[in-house]
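Methods — Computational structure assignment.
A single polypeptide chain was analysed. Its primary sequence is given first, followed by the predicted tertiary structure written as structure tokens.
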Amino acid sequence: MSSTEAQKRGKKNLACSLSIAATSKQTIGLMGGSFNPAHSGHRLISELAIKRLGLNKVWWLVSPQNPLKPSAGMANIKKRVQNAVKMSRNPKIKVMTIESFLDTRYTSDLLKILSKRFSSTRFIWIMGADNLLQFSEWKNWEEITSLVRIAIFDRPNFSLKSLAADMPRRFSGNRLREREGLLLKYRKPPAWIFFHSNLSHISATKIRSQIKTNGIGD
């Protein structure tokens, strides 16, 4: 199969997945990131989200290039997608290249398109507490809170710092209690929840360092 044919098939499969979401009242978790590389921490958060938020699926949205991260050391998207598929290991976790398909760069632009096209689907944005710390640096971050419900999962040593960040303080009145996770999908944005969990210390940065040190991977 040529690269052009593979690209067409990939876009067809993605369009099919998007169509299914558009025609059903599912609750789908969205986890955006570079996935450079995907690791067990991503899967752990996804599986916790499926259980505690009552999700039908989690989409791993592999970004072509995160505007807040340097391009140096970034593997090409094909390799990152292949790695993410291998790491997902759960039929409810789907690896997607929506940003490439829709030609969007910023989360706010992507969410506007998704919420408009798939009004019957309930989306919940999933992220770690480390990302919450820099959430106010995202383009149109306040608009994002009006477009999608948000679930934050604790990362080691980030609880206090992240909960003192701009978003939690600005939208403190829209926070659900931890035991109300299954109710989040029924709330209109802005609505968010923070889960205190003893999550993995694994990070993509550490994995890349190990790969470089051990001389494996490329």
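Note: The chain has a mean pLDDT of 83.
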